[in-house]
Design goal:
Blueprint: E1 4-7, H1 15-22, E2 27-29, E3 36-40, H2 44-54, E4 63-65, H3 80-89, E5 94-99, E6 114-118, H4 123-132, E7 136-137, H5 152-159, E8 165-168, E9 179-184, E10 187-192, H6 198-201, E11 207-210, E12 238-242, H7 245-253, E13 258-262, E14 275-277, H8 284-297, E15 306-310, H9 318-328, E16 333-335
Parallel strand pairs: 1-8, 2-8, 4-6, 5-9, 10-11, 12-15, 12-16, 13-14, 13-15
Antiparallel strand pairs: 2-3, 3-7, 4-7, 5-6, 9-10
Helix pairs in contact: 1-4, 8-9
The structure holds threonylcarbamoyladenylate (TXA) and magnesium ion.
Threonylcarbamoyladenylate is lined by residues 31, 33-34, 36, 60-63, 95, 97, 109, 112, 114-116, 118, 138-140, 177-178, 180, 223-227.
């Protein structure tokens, strides 16, 4: 497939990309979270192309992206809590799961009777949806199982020749995918942590429950089907180290052929060629922004056997960093 590449400069027209979506094609585009691979959410054939391009299992549903939260009622059954939350967080990095209406094809929702609704705040994403005139179904624009793309080079690597167009909009703001929630009466169930944090959401409900699959290995059927797959995995195995600075430095000093993901403050204390910081220890947002590009860097390195990552904070957006790391590690934590 010939892939059109569009470098967005601020005045670039997105009409050619919108035409591709209208005509049933698929386009990778930036959002404030990660890059998405989008197609017309009302067209089962476009959904099929997305699954095929990513190599994604067809039971893993796609999120439907809208230009404004007020459009949600066209595609799903909304309620008061949804609009309260939408007022506070949409447009923004949040996806809400709601019962779907019949115009959303089953292939978009992996056969589920619910649909994930998200209103991205990113200028390019928002304009592309408006110009296309249809809701856009978009998973993260990575090959299935790989870290989500946060830079244009990532989508070029994964999707050149597999998508009809790729839009270069620079780096994504948050670097981790949207928070996903489900509403149950006045309870909010957090299915995937992101930049809209548990702390923020808890102000809008009587009860906020963090789904077990967010923090623990889960063998049952998770509420978000995507949570059951090994995700974000670099080619080399990854282990998270939990312990004091001294214990971690001592442990790493005795290991060869290893890569390390750590914090800025650790850099003077950990020797080696493949030691990458994802940000300052107390800056979870920076860590979120850099995590996936850190993980992807290791796929270019062939003389390491294992990657060790320091345990991040679980507060605020830190819970998203922790969640992506434990998934990348296959829930492999080593206590020192
Ligand atoms: O930030 C994001 O959400 C990005 C950008 C492109 O918007 N998209 C994204 O999509 O991360 P994806 O497909 O990589 O992850 C979607 C997750 C999967 O774990 C999927 O199982 C879950 O959302 N999901 C989608 N629809 C669902 C539904 N109806 N019920 C439960 N989980 C759902
Ligand atoms: Mg994904």
């Amino acid at each position: 497939m010939n892939t059109l590449k569009i470098k967005y400069t601020g005045s670039t027209s997105l009409i050619p990309a919108a035409e591709i979506i209208k005509n049933g094609g698929i386009v990778a585009f930036p959002t404030e979270t990660v890059y998405g691979l989008g197609g017309n959410a009302l067209d089962p054939l476009a959904a099929g192309k997305i699954y095929a391009a990513k190599g994604r299992p067809s039971d893993n549903p796609l999120i439907v992206h809208l230009a404004k939260a007020q459009d949600a009622g066209k595609y799903c059954y909304t309620n008061d809590l949804f609009y309260q939350i939408a007022d506070a967080f949409m447009p923004g990095p949040l996806t809400v799961i709601l019962p779907k209406k019949s115009n959303i094809p089953d292939s978009v929702t992996g056969g589920l009777d619910s649909v994930g609704i998200r209103v991205p705040s990113h200028k390019i994403a928002n304009e592309l949806i408006k110009l296309s005139g249809v809701p856009i179904a978009a998973p993260s624009a990575n090959l299935s199982g790989k870290p989500s793309p946060t830079e244009f080079s990532h989508i070029e690597h994964d999707l050149d020749g597999r998508a009809d167009a790729l839009i270069d909009g620079g780096n994504c703001d948050f670097g981790v995918e949207s928070t996903i929630i489900k509403l149950n009466g006045n309870e909010i169930i957090l299915l995937r942590p992101g930049a809209v944090t548990a702390e923020m959401l808890s102000l809008f409900c009587d009860k906020l429950t963090i789904d077990k699959a967010v923090t623990e290995k889960f063998d049952g059927v998770p509420l978000a089907p995507g949570m059951k797959y090994r995700h974000y995995a670099p080619e080399c195995p990854l282990t998270i180290l939990e312990g004091s600075d001294e214990a971690v430095y001592e442990f790493l000093s005795c290991r060869e052929k290893r890569g390390v993901i750590c914090f800025d403050e650790d850099l003077p204390h950990i020797l080696g060629k493949y030691v990458f910081s994802c940000g300052p220890i107390h800056d979870s947002l920076k860590q979120a922004q850099n995590l996936f590009s850190c993980l992807r860097k290791f796929d270019q390195i062939h003389d390491i056997d294992i990657i060790y990552a320091r345990m991040p904070s679980k507060a605020g957006i830190g819970l998203a960093v922790f969640n992506r790391l434990i998934k990348a590690s296959g829930f492999n934590i080593r206590k020192l």
